[in-house]
Amino acid sequence: MQYNWQLNDWPDFRYDLTGMEKDLLAFAQSSGHVKGLFKALPEPLEEQARIDIMVAEAVKTSEIEGEIISREDVLSSLRNNLGLNRVPEHIKDKRAEGIAKLMVDVRKTYGSNLTIDTLFNWHLMVMEPFLHINKGKWRSGKEPMQIISGAIGKEIVHFEAPPSDRVPEEMEHFIQWFNKTAPGQPEAILHPAVRSAVAHLYFESIHPFEDGNGRIGRAVAEKAISQGINGPAILSISNTLEKNRQAYYEALKKAQRSNEITPWIRYFLDVLLQAQHQTEAVITFTIAKVRFFEHLKEQLNERQEKVLRRMLDAGPDGFQGGINARKYVSITRTSKATATRDLQNLVALGALAPLGSGRNARYEIRLP
Predict the structure, then answer these.
(1) What string of H, E and C letters represents the secondary structure of the chain?
(2) pLDDT tens, 276-309?
(3) Separation CA 41–CA 205 (nearest Å)
(4) How many CA atoms lie within 13 A of 38 on its CB side?
């Protein structure tokens, strides 16, 4: 089995965009539409929508790698890093803090060239809590870097990256390619979605770090889009990829067998279009949240507002399983009797809708 980097034409990726013109145009139009939607939002709403999208990207890019991080800690860390908290909040989950720092930096520095220092700094942010990982440097072990699955003794090797001693040279070529193909450069790739797809595949095929390659590689893909649309990308690629993680792995696996990558471009373009549709849903959701609390203004006690905001922080996909008296007690540290009374009052106000009754009573948000 030969991988793309072992072939004579590496890394001269080839692709045919015939038949993709309609989707490429749709991506460009959708990018403009999303930008327009954001500009039309009042400043506090625009800020909230951007944060919601960044939270989704941070949480989902970690979930793809099998890490479940605290959404609340990601949100608090994002607000700390954006200077939105007058007093910085304490972050318990250091993984959440690291991925939030990455999200902010990717958006702040989108227009600058990609450099080794950029990638090393991103790696330090993401891997800071992991004690046994060589952080902020290329991998250097002699063992093969393999992507495997299956039980011990029955492992399936999906991909093997170039040996560690080739990584510095490979990454030098990758960084040169990335910067030469940026908008306005002699070898510019005109379609941001295409450049993003190639950049992600190219980076993942080198797999330059000991760990964290997926998260950094998706950040590189986002940087490519941001440069192409001349502004921070307003979408969550990882949120879309995580919904069908297996399809992502399969598409990547097939693409790493050849340097003719038309199917990969087609797949990744579809992912980006879905991500843009989700962004539009986030904007709609953010507006609905604001209207929701405006409608309930001065009718909620502190406990009720805390619970409703916690439920809505879960995003458009909702608070898993709804809310019940037990969860309410856990969030507010109140008695079960008070929790039950508060929940019944929220139903009466039209803020919650009941699901089930008796011991199985739980409630879901009723957004306008």
Answers:
(1) CCCHHHCCCCCCCECCCCCCHHHHHHHHHHHHHHHHHHHHCCHHHHHHHHHHHHHHHHHHHHHHCCCCCCHHHHHHHHHHHCCCCCCCCCCCCHHHHHHHHHHHHHHHCCCCCCCHHHHHHHHHHHHCCCCCCCCCCCCCCCCCCEEEECCCCCCEEEEECCCHHHHHHHHHHHHHHHHHCCCCCCCCCCCHHHHHHHHHHHHHHHCCCCCCHHHHHHHHHHHHHHHHHCCCCCCCHHHHHHHCHHHHHHHHHHHCCCCECHHHHHHHHHHHHHHHHHHHHHHHHHHHHHHHHHHCCCCCCHHHHHHHHHHHCCCCCCCCCCECHHHHHHHHCCCHHHHHHHHHHHHHCCCEEEECCHHHCEEEECCC
(2) 998 888 888 888 888 899 899 899 999 999 999 9
(3) 40
(4) 22
pLDDT over 70 at 200, yes or no:
yes
Contacts of 46 (CB under 8 A, 6+ apart): 38, 39
Tokens, residue 88: 């910085």
Angstrom distance (rounded) from CA 175 to CA 114: 6
Backbone angles phi, psi at 193, to 5 degrees: -65, -40
- Using left for φ > 0, alpha for ψ between -120 and 50, and beta otherwise, residue 90 falls in beta
Res. 318: pLDDT tops 70: no
Q: Which residues pair with 353 in a beta bridge?
A: 364
Closest alpha carbon to 367 in 281, 313, 289:
289
